[in-house]
């Protein structure tokens, strides 16, 4: 088997950063350098020219995602220095045929991107017959966030397609190795290399993995376990970033400082400090759940205190969030329990039994339904609708990864404004 090609996808917006990251990735063993679609949209063909000039010994791939005017776009990329140009596999055949003619004329190769193609096997055969050089089994970044897998797509193509097959979509060292074992000859890795603080190390790990392809037995993980693992690895701010700044409760703080709660909500509505339903809800909750209590926003009387906290902790409840006040704060702080509230007050209410458990409530301005996911830390509390929990958990992890590289660049001496090219990206009115 020929040595697989490692293609690093520079999915960035800033050319200077892309050049620096490409240099580090090449040192880690990347063979081909892909000028990613976001970079092309941000910097145009200048990005292709610059990378061609800076890396004379490496193939430059222009991820144009061509959908129309095949000949013109291939010509632009070829004349700027690309050796491989990417076209959408579901572009009309008229576009593909023109792109192939242009590619032959300018001496470049065409890679067709299977993103969103309904019948990848027959489309790949058609593309090969039309003269496309490579087929890319690609699952896009937004599709990855809802759990689609590029390895599944690649496996559907195995043995069915004559042209060399590339694979892209959320690959890391482990999945890249599996991709080669499943027949990929070009492995494309974006985020897991270019967002790493140590780009060279990340590229090297992928390089070593694809040079020794193997299929490792995988442990099955349930959706809920994956959601919990991902949310436990990110912060509440990462989660609101992933939700386009939605979901954060207003005016609520962590009572015990640096603690974190992650879990599906068991909701409680109570009235005027009545602590019967909040305490009964401890028995309704399973280990790992988060109690979310609305006390109608009243803060002169507490529906929660130390004994309830003790009981919740024993039951394995992951945290308690109260739109209202708590008491016995000194004892609760000693327990280091993830408790979030809007106020503290010494008064307790009476256990009258008013209110409801597991109905829709509004807590600190956010609607919370039973089973919605809660992520709470010292920055505050975020509610994630249960239908989108997996997707948001994946996106929040991407936000975190993205910050790793930015943090590293700040550590090396750039300002945040420089790294993110703030002036360039200010909104024009
Ligand atoms: O093509 C890509 C995507 O559509 C954004 O332009 C990526 O380069 C490709 O998905 C590889 O990146 P990762 O999925 O982050 O590995």
TrEMBL record:
Pfam hit, one: OMPdecase
Orotidine 5'-phosphate decarboxylase domain span: 5-206
InterPro entries registered for this protein in UniProt: 3-hexulose-6-phosphate_synth, Aldolase_TIM, Bifunct_HPS/DMK_prd, HPS/KGPDC, OMPdeCOase_dom, RibuloseP-bd_barrel, RraA/RraA-like, RraA/RraA-like_sf
Catalytic activity: D-ribulose 5-phosphate + formaldehyde = D-arabino-hex-3-ulose 6-phosphate
Keywords: Carbohydrate metabolism, Lyase
Protein's UniProt keywords contain Cytoplasm: no
Family matches, as SUPFAM superfamilies: Ribulose-phoshate binding barrel, RraA-like
Statement: the UniProt record of this protein carries the keyword NADP: no
Protein's UniProt name: 3-hexulose-6-phosphate synthase
Species of the source: Methanoculleus nereidis
